[in-house]
Write a structure and sequence with these properties.
The complex is a heterodimer of chains A (185) and B (254). By secondary structure, chain A is of the alpha/beta class. Helices cover 41% and strands 19% of the residues of chain A. In chain A, a hairpin with a 5-residue loop joins strand 1 and strand 2. Classes of the chains: A alpha/beta (185), B mainly alpha (254).
Chain lengths: 185, 254
């Protein structure tokens, strides 16, 4: 019966639907608060990257805020994780290709690995990018790391633009993401 | 939010699994229900697979053309089986075009084929909303309502679950065989699916905290959904007129 009524009065019905939808859109514009993206510090795409405090291989402090104004590739890894190790050469290649406006910061999850094993791997592979050691696991907790490797792509304003769970990432995957971030900037 | 599922040493991405399940159940529904639209199951599945294949290839080619420098030093990586090296919009357009061309060369009308695809699209849509819930994308605005979920530093509307519920309602409407009452003439099942889905996007957008806005805080997805809704309502009107004309001709013939 309702269907028959709709079919008989279809023009009125469709105009009514479109008017109600337009009013709903207008109400959304008036009533919905501005997005919290770009304001809250939380490990999600569109939000600001939380700051982390780490130690480098010489036990000097190293923080994410040290790299303000640069694109940061924040990579969480451990020496017992094969895909983490497999993507390290690509990360080094990326750092070599963008030496000035990009920083690769590899966060060694020391609380789930051994400090010696992490340092030995970096030395053996001759990796030159920044490596921070998360001895207490605070950085991993702050970034809610559930699997390894996990890689965050952060623009020069400190906003997370992409997150990749798992790996190994290839140079094409890494470089295309950097180009996307540069396009947006 | 459940981004990963750990099974022993394996860590599986839940959103991707949900999307794969959506494709599987969607294709199964198309295969089983296509005959009621007078479309052969094999023809319906083949046309979708053709679209999928062309779409995947086009998405990769478009991505490589967009970021040629990324593949300059390692051209073999063009063949990497990674879904993130895809230009999804280009793939969608190319896949849709391939499916339409394939369908137009088969017996039966394009409208019948679209009706045959509809149950699959509806099931995939539900899986897509669930995948977004698992990944935490399409998150909601902040709320104090008791069913708010803690996500990304605030208590938020579970906007993905609202979308999922909307998609389930769409499934319940377009899956049953109400052909004689509602889905007459051919194409109505598909158009009803599109119109209600556009309605779901319009409704849910109010609670989303991730939508880009235009001018005076107008949600871009709402604007897009409204335009689709208007176009679909116009097409439904045309199909109803077309059907009335045919019924009148039939009566005159008698």
């Amino acid at each position: 019966m309702i269907i028959q009524w709709i079919k008989r009065n279809y023009t009125i019905f469709s105009i009514l639907i479109l008017v109600i939808s337009a009013l709903w859109t207008a109400w959304t514009a008036i009533d919905t608060p501005a997005t919290t993206q770009g304001k809250i510090y939380t490990p999600a795409v569109g939000f600001m990257a939380p700051d982390i405090q780490l130690r480098d291989s010489m036990d000097n402090p190293i923080a994410l805020t040290d790299f303000e104004g640069k694109i940061v590739v924040l990579n969480f890894w451990a020496s017992w994780c094969p895909p983490c190790k497999a993507e390290m050469p690509a990360l080094q290649d990326l750092q070599n290709q963008f030496p000035d406006d990009l920083v690769v910061l590899a966060v060694h999850m020391t609380s789930q690995d051994s400090l010696e094993a992490g340092k030995a791997f970096i030395t053996a592979e001759g990796l030159k990018f920044a490596v921070g050691y998360d001895t207490q696991g605070q950085a991993a907790r702050l970034y809610q790391i559930r699997s390894m490797p996990t890689t965050f792509f952060i623009d020069s304003q400190g906003e997370i633009k992409d997150i990749v769970l798992g790996g190994p990432l290839s140079i094409a995957q890494l470089k295309s993401r950097i180009e996307m971030i540069r396009e947006d900037e | 939010m459940f981004p990963t599922l750990s099974i022993g040493p394996l860590v599986l991405p839940v959103p991707a699994l949900l999307l794969i399940l959506g494709v599987y159940f969607g294709l199964t529904a198309v295969e089983k229900l296509a005959p009621r639209e007078k479309v052969a199951s094999a023809a319906a599945i083949n046309s979708l697979m053709m679209g999928l294949l062309v779409g995947l290839i086009a998405a990769r080619v478009a991505f490589v053309f967009r970021f040629p420098d990324s593949f300059q030093n390692s051209p073999w990586q063009v063949l990497l089986p990674r879904p993130d090296l895809m230009d999804l919009q280009s793939g969608f357009v190319a896949g849709l075009a391939a499916t339409m061309i394939y369908v137009s060369r088969k017996p039966g009308t394009v409208w019948s084929f679209l009706d045959a695809f509809t149950p699959g699209l509806a099931l995939f849509s539900a899986a897509w909303w669930a995948a977004n819930f698992a990944s935490g994308r399409l998150f909601g605005t902040e709320t104090t309502l008791p069913w708010g979920i803690s996500l990304w530093g605030a208590v938020r509307h579970p906007s993905q679950l609202y979308g999922f519920l909307g998609a389930i309602i769409v499934v319940l409407i377009v899956l049953p065989d109400w052909k004689k009452i509602v889905f007459q003439p051919a194409g109505m099942r598909f158009l009803v699916f599109l119109s209600i889905t556009a309605g779901v996007f319009l409704k849910v957008s109010k609670f989303r905290g991730d939508v880009p806005t235009l001018g005076v805080n107008i949600h871009t997805d709402q604007l897009f959904a409204w335009l689709i809704l208007a176009a679909v309502l116009f097409l439904i009107g045309r199909r109803i007129q077309h059907n009335s004309g045919k019924e009148a001709e039939y009566r005159e013939g008698i």
